[in-house]
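Appendix B, Record 12. Input sequence as logged:
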Amino acid sequence: MLARCGYHVPSLWREMNRLSQEMNRWFGEPSSSQCSGVFPPLNVYDDGESIVVRADIPGVDPKSIEVNAAMRSLTIKGERPKQTGDEKQSFHRRERGCGAFSRSLTLPQEINPDKVRAEYRLGVLEVVLPKSEEVKPRKIDVLQA
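Logged structural output:
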């Protein structure tokens, strides 16, 4: 029946999901993406020598950030404080979360945990995880027999 009316069922579901998210925003309820627990958002890339992780965590005191690295794992923990006076205000929209967060990921290769560096600048945490010497590619010289 829906197909005869000119609606494609997957696009209808997409539109219903969009409408539901918009209504949640209007009534102050968090959307499913905000409830998914995926904070902070990360970019992870390989620059050849290291695995680099960038995390967006604006509004967090760098002294409260904890970074733990092991052979194939990275954990970032911290806390975004509540804004003072929030309880006295009537919000029209509230999308910025607060409170404790923790994000762990399995790295694609083993790293050298003793050489990990972390730097926080302008709300972005950058963690550089040098690869373990054992997993770095090596050039092999071919000998003539």
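The chain has two helices and seven strands.
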